[in-house]
Automatic annotation (TrEMBL):
Organism the protein comes from: Salinimicrobium tongyeongense
CC cofactor: Mg(2+)
Organismal lineage: Bacteria, Pseudomonadati, Bacteroidota, Flavobacteriia, Flavobacteriales
Keywords: Carbohydrate metabolism, Isomerase, Magnesium, Metal-binding, Phosphoprotein
Recorded superkingdom: Bacteria
Official protein name in the record: Beta-phosphoglucomutase
The EC number(s) this enzyme carries: 5.4.2.6
Top class in the EC scheme: isomerase
Length: 217
């Protein structure tokens, strides 16, 4: 078999969006405004810098460069403290079954995430060693929908992009996979992720027959 899989992290393997939301919301509240869950939807898959720019514009705030850095650092410290006690039980339902199948059948898989916290999160989940490659926010210069993160992952898997299959929960991520020439599988609302080649609400809806089918394609 000569195909490989690339997983997004947040929203695919683990649900960290709620912790990002709580940490950004606390920061916004300290600055005197609030952010809603609907607004948080728009931050999914978006880099840390762009998230903060977006949030400050919602709050009609302009800050100095130093203050911008300080806000990013303190939000991240708050976020890290909220995810500190993550373990295997935090894997999203159905994910373990797929990872076990891939590991047992020696099918290589990589991470392709915008997060700069990907490694400590994977470590907490107890699955860091199982990835052939981990490409995250520390390795890229261009954010999704730019395909950079997935193209680097393909290279590290030693596979041409057309032989890579991407699992993504964000519109920008599905777009990035499509631009890269990879098979895209949307995890979440199919009306939102309508550009994906296949759609599933979550990993409990994905059976091993489907995985075998796309690996053969
Ligand atoms: P960090 P993904 C993304 O991860 C999140 O969806 C997004 O909400 C977050 O702002 C971004 O990572 C950066 O995360 O602050 O941890 O570097 O979905 O691409 O795995
Ligand atoms: Mg995501």
């Amino acid at each position: 078999n000569s195909k490989g899989i690339i997983f997004d992290l947040d929203g695919v393997i683990v649900d960290t969006a709620k912790f990002h939301y709580l940490a950004w919301r606390k920061m916004a509240n300290d600055l005197g405004f609030d952010i809603t869950l609907e607004q948080n939807e728009q931050l999914k898959g978006v880099s840390r810098v762009h998230s903060l720019q977006q949030i400050l514009s919602w709050g009609n705030k302009t800050v100095s460069e130093t203050e911008f850095e300080r806000l990013m650092t303190s939000k991240n410290e708050d976020y890290l403290s909220r995810i500190a006690h993550m373990d295997e039980a935090d894997l999203l339902p159905g994910v373990k079954k797929v990872l076990d199948y891939l590991t047992e059948n020696n099918i290589p898989f990589a991470l392709g995430s915008a997060s700069k916290n990907a490694r400590p999160i994977l470590k907490g989940l107890g699955i860091e060693e199982r990835f052939t490659a981990i490409v995250d926010g520390n390795d890229v210069t261009k954010a999704k929908p730019d395909p950079e993160v997935f193209l680097i992952a393909a290279e590290e898997l030693g596979l041409p992009p057309k032989d890579c299959i991407v699992f993504e929960d964000s519109v920008a991520g599905v777009e990035a996979a499509n631009i890269a020439g990879m098979l895209s599988i949307g995890i979440g609302d199919k009306d939102i992720l309508k550009e994906a080649d296949y759609n599933f609400a979550d990993f409990t809806q994905i059976d091993i027959d489907f995985i075998e089918k796309i690996l053969r394609k």
